[in-house]
Amino acid sequence: MHFGIETDTDSLFDTITEFFSMQKALIIYSYSVYNWDSGFAKAASLIFNVPMVRIPRIEAWK
What we know:
The chain is of the alpha+beta class.
């Protein structure tokens, strides 16, 4: 998973490690609280040619 924009060296290393770990995936499953795909996961999917499946957001019961 990916959490926002990182600024310190360790966090940047963690983020790039997460990105490149998706390179070896067979499928990338992505969930977002927003109504659009994660740009982070979508970029990895397109660059590394790994299919991405978006898990739809489910509205809370009212």
